[in-house]
Structures are given as C-alpha cells and as structure tokens.
C-alpha cells in the first residue's frame, strides 16, 4: 500500500481528548479515538504557559515554595537553588515533550517505543496509580477551603466540622461536603473534554495571579514592607558546608516536585502546534513563572505572619487557605479561599486527572475510553480516603516516595531510547501494530531490556527511601533516572537481537516514519538498528 492510499483510507474520529486519525491497519487492542495520533495540533505557547501556571498555582505549590525559604539558609542561596532547579526542569520537560509532540500521541503510547506495545502498560499503570493518590490528596486539601468558608458563614456547623464529633471514615461531615463538592466540580470540567480544560486553564492561570498579587499587596500594606523577610526559617541559620548541602537539597526538591507532571508532559505537548511553541511555553511557564510565583509566596507568607500571627506551635503559616481564612476582611477571605480552591482544581485536572485518563485507557483501549479512565481515577481517589493518608506522615512517605522512586527510571528509559537508541525517529503506525514484524513488538509485545531496567533501576532509590536519610531520599529521582538511562542503553546495545526480539524480525509495518525535525520518510524496512538492537550485537 502506498503512503497516499494509506492516508486516504484513514478516518478521523472526534473524541473528548481531541480529533484523531485511525488507519485501517491499527489494531483495536492498542487503539481508540483518544490514543490515536491527533489530526491537528493547535496549542500555542500560551496554552503551554497556562498549563504550567495551573500546575504551580495550588495549595501544595504554595506550601512547597514557602518551605524552600524555611530551609535555614540565606534567601539568595534559596533563589540560586530554585533557579538552577527550575531551569533543569525546563530542559528535562523539553526532552520528554518532543516524542509526543512529534507523533501527536499521549505519554503511554509514546512509551511503546521502548517498552513495547504491550509492555507500555507498566509505566502507564505506575504513573496512573501515582496520579490517583495525588488526585485524592489535592482534592482533600482544596476541600478544606470550602469547609472553612462554610464555618465562617454558618458557625453552627462547627459540631459537624473537624472539632465536632460527627465523622465518617475519618472525615467530618463538613469535610465530606467540601470534598464531594470539589470532586464534582473537577469531574464536570474534565468530562467536557480537553478543549474545555484548555479554556479553563487559559483563564484560571492569569486569574489566580491577579488575586494572589492583590492578596500579597493587602498583607504587605497591613504589615509594612519592613516586616517582609525572605527568610522564613526559625532558629540559627545554617552556615558553611551545611548551607551548601541545604542548597543542593533545595535543588533536588524542586526537580522532584515536578517529576510527576514532567514524566507525563507528553499528554499535553502532543497538542503543541510545533515543538518551538512547546519550548517557548515551557520557558515562560517554568523558569519565569515559578520564580515569580515563589517570590510572591514568600512575601505573602512573611507579611501574613505579622498580620495574622503564627499557629499554635509558633510556626509561620504557609498554607494559603488558612492565611486567607484568618483575614479580618470577609470579602478578601472569601475571594482568597475560592481562588485557591479553583487553582487546585486546575492543577488536579492537568496533573492528576488527564494523566490517568490516558494511562488507564492505554491498558484496555476497547473497553476504557479517556473519559472512563479519568473517572476510574476519580473513584479511586475516594476509595483510598486521602485525608487518612495525608494525616499519616509515615504512610504518605513510604507510599509516595516508593512510587515516586520508579518515576526516575521510567524517565531515564524513555530518554535513552528516544534520543540515544532510536535517534529521534518514530514509526507512528507501528505504535498501533500488534504484528510480530512491527518495530515495537519486540518479544511478544514486551521489551525485556526495558522491563529488567526499570526493575533494577528502581531498587537503588527505593532502598534509600526505606533505609536512607531524608537528605539522601531527596535524590531518589536522580538516582533512578540515571540508573534507568544507563542500564537501558547498555542493554539495548549489548543484548543479542534474539533476546530483545525473540524469533520476530523487526520490520516496519508502516508507510510513514516521523523524524525529529517533523519530516516524514517512507522506509522499505526498519532494520534491527532502528528497532533498538544491533544485528551483530
């Protein structure tokens, strides 16, 4: 079949995730209208910029940014670590964005190039489970805002609040009301599809900034600029070698904080009009946006300590919901609480709703659509009772750090395969082919090198999560990413072709391959070198 004939036979399908193109040769067990390549990529740099604004402007992001300035080192040291860390995140996001933007497919489909058309379910399920846990926790944190708002207007509800005696599964009735409300609002935005999500984050990103700037200005005005400090730490400042290690830890924390959205950024970069648009959006959304956001946060938290005081233990309040809840001005408090609730809806949808929707759909494309995958994640977020998980530091530490330790190897393997092994070439049609001669069929649909690499590369960071110090645990992403990259690359170069592919011959079933520069070629056959293993290895 010629390329033109194949293109003519392809059919366009409109879905909640966008309009895609499905060719007759695509296997149903690997394909649905949500996972197939996009017919048209329309997102501009501003849409990517707004995505990162929504990802950063949350209760969790606020507390995280404030905690960086409470590490006990000078403010300039924090800023240096923050800048270096967010620039590193920017570069890493550009790396992971390219294959998805190039092929027009989401993250789990992109991982088929290294894990195989069936093996890709390993990274999909791992990332999906992490997203479910964070989705529940973020929903719970934002729901607290509605509970505080309800008690502010109806004090009689206190008996049903956290200080009352009416609880179900560890959460008060007021807490349940706020959680269900947040859950429904997020589901409504998600259910209307990616176009609605794009419009939502395009508006909410800048809108949240407006309210944050007004809040910071109000608190600074009430406190006086002399009472604003960039040092939020308590006790004796760390100096000498201790301050250097604290800076390194701050750098690692910044990268680790973005490791989840960074891994599945392909779910959004696939919509980018060009890779240049994606890179421009990443620059404005990460280094520029996060630096400005962090400075705004530390000013707000510092001024807030003077205006509203500290908590019962004498610590500075870094949770923005509790800051605005204690402001005397009722209008300002209501506006602030609602703003941070909306901001959290934004991050939850882009980071923890869209991702598992694609991931779970990838597991069973004929049975699970993008919408259903998202709702599976939403239901799972209730089942895990995230408030109990969040209130148990040990449980959340071992659960999230162990799952997070696997993110690094997944990232390293994808980067090694796309840039070092496949040389930035993707045979798009073979991503949806179950034929043994397909470039990504490997060994019965599984690439044994990738499976072995992710297992071995995960052991090192997981061991530090269990037995290491908190300082060592902050580097688990780097350990896993480096180990995954090295193990996979060496495995693909040194393993015999018979081990990687079994008895199958890796020939391309596609008429069209997409190169790194976006040009298309018509290969007669994808050799074993292009499939990731040398014929003489």
From TrEMBL:
Entry keyword annotation includes Transmembrane helix: yes
Keyword list, A-Z: Membrane, Transmembrane, Transmembrane helix
Transmembrane residue ranges: 62-92, 128-151, 171-191, 203-221, 241-263, 284-309, 329-351, 372-390, 402-421, 449-468, 474-491
CDD domains referenced in this protein's UniProt entry, alphabetically: SLC-NCS1sbd_u1
Short name of any one Pfam family annotated for the protein: Transp_cyt_pur
NAD as UniProt keyword: no
One GO CC annotation: plasma membrane
GO molecular function annotations of the record: nucleobase transmembrane transporter activity
Record membrane topology: Multi-pass membrane protein
Subcellular location: Membrane
Major location (coarse): membrane
InterPro entries per record: Pur-cyt_permease, Uracil/uridine/allantoin_perm
Family the UniProt entry places it in: Belongs to the purine-cytosine permease (2.A.39) family.
Name of the protein in its database record: NCS1 family nucleobase:cation symporter-1
Organism: Gordonia desulfuricans
Taxonomy of the source species: Bacteria, Bacillati, Actinomycetota, Actinomycetes, Mycobacteriales
């Amino acid at each position: 079949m010629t390329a033109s004939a194949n293109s003519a036979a392809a059919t366009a399908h409109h879905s909640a995730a966008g309009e895609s193109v499905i060719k007759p040769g695509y296997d149903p067990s690997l394909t649905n209208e949500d996972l197939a390549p996009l017919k048209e990529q329309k997102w501009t740099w501003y849409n990517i910029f707004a995505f990162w604004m929504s990802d950063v402007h949350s209760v969790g992001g606020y507390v995280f940014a404030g905690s960086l300035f409470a590490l006990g080192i000078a403010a300039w040291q924090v800023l240096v670590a923050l800048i270096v860390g967010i620039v590193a995140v920017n570069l890493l996001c550009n790396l992971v964005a390219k294959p998805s933007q190039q092929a027009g497919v989401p993250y789990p489909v992109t991982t088929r190039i290294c894990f195989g058309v069936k093996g890709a379910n390993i990274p999909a399920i791992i990332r999906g489970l992490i997203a479910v846990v964070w989705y529940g926790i973020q929903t719970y944190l934002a729901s607290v805002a509605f509970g505080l708002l309800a008690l502010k207007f109806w004090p009689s509800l206190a008996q049903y609040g956290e200080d009352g005696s009416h609880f179900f599964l560890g959460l008060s009735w007021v807490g349940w009301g706020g959680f269900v409300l947040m859950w429904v609002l997020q589901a409504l935005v998600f259910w209307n599809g990616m176009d609605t999500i794009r419009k939502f984050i395009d508006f909410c990103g800048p809108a949240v900034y407006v309210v944050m700037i007004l809040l910071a200005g109000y608190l600074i005005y009430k406190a006086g600029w002399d009472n604003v400090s960039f040092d939020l730490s308590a006790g004796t400042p760390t100096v000498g070698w201790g301050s250097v290690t604290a800076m390194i830890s701050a750098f690692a924390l910044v990268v680790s904080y973005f490791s989840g959205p960074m891994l599945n950024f392909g779910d959004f970069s696939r919509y980018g009009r060009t890779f240049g648009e994606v890179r421009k959006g990443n620059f404005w959304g990460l280094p520029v946006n996060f630096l400005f956001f962090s400075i705004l946060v530390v000013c707000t938290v510092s001024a807030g300590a003077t205006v509203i005081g500290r908590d019962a233990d004498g610590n500075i309040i870094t949770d923005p919901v509790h800051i605005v809840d204690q402001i005397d001005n009722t209008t300002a408090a209501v506006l602030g609480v609602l703003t941070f609730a909306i901001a959290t809806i934004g991050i939850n949808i882009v980071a923890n709703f869209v991702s598992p929707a694609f991931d779970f759909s990838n597991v069973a494309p004929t049975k699970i659509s993008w919408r259903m995958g998202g709702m599976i994640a939403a239901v799972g977020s209730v089942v895990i009772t995230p408030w109990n998980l969040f209130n148990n530091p040990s449980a959340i530490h071992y659960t999230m750090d162990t799952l997070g330790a696997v993110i690094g190897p997944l990232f390293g393997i994808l980067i090694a395969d796309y840039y070092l092994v496949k040389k930035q070439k993707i045979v798009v049609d073979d991503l949806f082919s179950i034929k043994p001669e397909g470039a990504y069929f490997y060994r019965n649909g599984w690439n044994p090198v990738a499976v072995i690499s992710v297992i071995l590369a995960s052991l090192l960071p997981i061991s530090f999560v269990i037995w290491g110090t908190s300082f060592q645990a902050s580097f688990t992403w780097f350990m896993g990413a480096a180990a995954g990259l090295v193990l996979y690359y060496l495995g693909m170069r040194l393993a015999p072709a018979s081990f990687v592919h079994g008895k199958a011959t890796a020939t391309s079933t596609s008429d069209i391959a997409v190169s790194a520069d976006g040009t298309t070629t018509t290969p007669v056959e994808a050799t074993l070198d292009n499939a990731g293993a040398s014929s003489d290895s």
